[in-house]
Amino acid sequence: MQHPATHILDVVCSNCGESHRLRSTAEAVSVEVCSNCHPAYTGAARTMVGGDRIERFNRRLARVGR
Asked: Does residue 45 register a pLDDT over 70?
């Protein structure tokens, strides 16, 4: 069994322009978001507090009259 041919690629993020070099069996790889600009990695992500969702649900339930 023969291993597939690998290529060294420069992958550029279309969002921030950051370039990463990797080895892949694919001819081309494109990414929309990378670890440099993704909100979960940069700390810009907002976290939902569970209590707010429960309070909203209870308010909707109260409007229905149940």
From this structure: no
